[in-house]
Each structure stands twice: as C-alpha cells, then as structure tokens.
Amino acid sequence: MFTNELLAPIGAFCTLADMSAEPFNTAAVDKAFENRLRPRAFADFPGQDQIKHNLQIYIAAARKRGEPLDHILFSGPPGLGKTTLAGIIACEMGVEMRSTSGPALERPADLAGLLTSMKEGEVLFVDEIHRLPSAVEEYLYSAMEDWAIDVVMESGLYARSIRLTVPRFTLIGATTREGLLTAPFRARFGIVERLDYYPPEALVAILKRSADILRVRLTDDGAGELACRARGTPRIVNRFLARARDVAEVQGNGEITLAVAQECLRMLGVDTRGLTEMDRRLLEVLGQHGGGPVGLKTVAVSVGETEDTLENVYEPYLIREGYLLKTPQGRKLSAKGYEAIGQKPPTQIGSLFANIQ
Ligand code: ADP
Prior knowledge:
Layout: E1 5-6, H1 10-13, H2 16-20, H3 31-37, H4 49-65, E2 72-75, H5 82-93, E3 97-101, H6 108-116, E4 123-127, H7 134-146, E5 148-153, E6 160-165, E7 170-175, H8 183-187, E8 191-194, H9 200-214, E9 217-218, H10 220-228, H11 234-251, E10 255-256, H12 258-268, H13 277-288, H14 296-303, H15 307-320, E11 324-327, E12 330-333, H16 335-340, H17 348-356
Parallel strand pairs: 1-3, 2-7, 2-8, 3-4, 4-7, 9-10
Antiparallel strand pairs: 5-6, 11-12
Helix pairs in contact: 6-7, 9-10, 9-11, 10-12, 11-12, 13-14
The structure holds adenosine-5'-diphosphate.
Adenosine-5'-diphosphate is lined by residues 34, 37-39, 45-47, 78-84, 174, 206, 234-235, 238.
C-alpha cells in the first residue's frame, strides 16, 4: 500500500544537496535505516498532535464522501516527518503513494507521464516542491484544479495543444522553504500544515519505539539525554540512537545508559545545549564581527557552508532557540548566543565605541 514507487531515480527522492545539508554527516545517510524506523500509522507517530488531529478529520471526511483528499502542503525544517506523514496519509486513505521531488521533474513531459500513469485517488508526494521548475509548476495548476493538462504538440507554426485528462489525485508537497513558493501555487493547496520542532517528551517516545524496532536496550535517562540534545528533530534523535548503539555494543554491555549517551554525544561534537560544531562556528563568526549584523554570504564563506544550507538547516533552530536574530541588515548574535560560545555580550557603551572605530 505505502510504496515509494520512484518514477524518478532514487537520488532524486533525497537529493545529494539535501543529504549533505544536514548535521551529523548525513551524506552517508542510510535510507534503509530511516525507512525501517518510519511509522506507517498515526498511532505510531508521536508529536505534532494538532496536525495529526486535523489530518485525521480531513481523511475521515474525504473517505466518507468517497472523494480524494484535498491537496496538502507540509512545510518545516528537514527531518520533522513530512515524508512520513505523506506515507501515513496514503496508508489511511488506502491508496498508493508515488514519490518524486521538485528537481526531478525537469520538464512538463515528466509530469504528464507521471500523472497519466496514476490511478484515481492516489497520492503524489513531491519533496522539495519549492524547487519545481516554473514551467512544470504551471502545468500542475490545471492538473490540481481541473484534473487535466494541456500538452503542446509540435512547435512553431504547427504547434497545437491537446488536453489530457488525469485521474483525480492528491498532491502532497513538502518544503523547507514555504516562502519560496509562488502565491498562486500555495493558494492551490487546500490544506497547509507547518511542522514544528518536537519537545523532548515526544522525542523520548520516538526513541523508545525505535529502540524496540532495533532491539536495543535504552534506559530512561539515556533516552532523555539523547532527546534533549537532538534539536527537536526525529531524524537526528534516531541517528543518535544508531551511534549510541555502537558505543553501547563496543564500550558497554549493549545497553544505552546515560553514560553511553553522553559519550556518544561527545564523540559527535554535540554540546550540552544540543549545538553542533557548525552551529558554534556560525555563532563564533558573528561574535568575531562584534555580534553583527553580518550578511548571510559572509557567514557562509566564513564557515564554509552554502547559504542555502545555513538558511534551511542550521538557522531555523538557532533562531527559534534565540541564539541568533535575523534582521534586514543581516544576522545578529543574541545574549544567549554569546553565552553559547563562552563570551560576554558587549555592553552598549562598548559596542558604541566598537562602531565608532
Ligand atoms: P522530512 O520529510 O520532514 O525531512 P521524514 O519524514 O523523512 O522527515 O523523517 C525523518 C526520519 O524521522 C524518518 O526515519 C522518520 O521515521 C522519523 N520520524 C519523523 N517524524 C517522526 C515521528 N513523529 N515519529 C517517529 N518517527 C519520526
């Protein structure tokens, strides 16, 4: 039922850019490991309670009417469960899910081929939907609204357009950058849900479920330690679990205890606040510039990361936790940010002199 039938190559489902763009060496991300831990039902998906509640009502209503579910847009930082929710929705609707990604749909013909091969009611999941080429996006408009696409045959003088009907489907788009979607496109999604970072209790629940699946013993304080430092992100907490299991098996008796969790996080360079080396480098660059404002480009060059990765992956958490401020003039370090890098924020008079110099 929940199949990731990849019409595009598998790399397109989780692009290289995406994979390298996450903390903790996700270039080597193990998709099989992720899929093994991926919940298939709402009951196995801790957290995001309001979103789950809303979706369950929409699904029940669509099923009652015997109609496909309205188009859905999920936004939020990577690893919070957008893909997982899409799969759960397909399962709950009792339909297949086809998966692809924005960059994989290069030409309108790719989309036409995909849509015409779908069956009534199926789910089309498009990851990184903000990266859909604009020509493809415009084709999608009529498919989403009128269940038809106009295909242009021939070219020049002999150009003619043929209207192809497509089965009524549910588009589920996932994006880390909702703001990059055009207004007309966004308006075509009947349901828009924003996923937020998870509280530690929800991450503990995720860890316990994952530990059961992996058959690894995990103490409460071990789980609490991993959960508190996982940036509110299920993907990260599951990765911690995988690495802590290694430590437990090699250095301990196989059980993930508090000491094992702490040793694993030390090895990964995660501090007690849950900040990674890259987070700290980013904050330090701002500190070196008197706390900012510093332009994103300068920060990116200084830390050796792309602007896109900083904006998508690192900044949302740092901003949300109050380490960093995003202003029209550039990024600024907050008092909490100074504290995180072991520095004192400059006094107002001190920074006045710094500005004069
Ligand atoms: P996204 O699409 O937002 O980047 P995914 O849906 O691919 O994130 O989730 C990343 C990993 O985290 C998957 O292995 C998934 O199983 C796990 N995960 C995400 N959210 C949850 C959750 N609420 N409960 C359990 N596991 C989750």
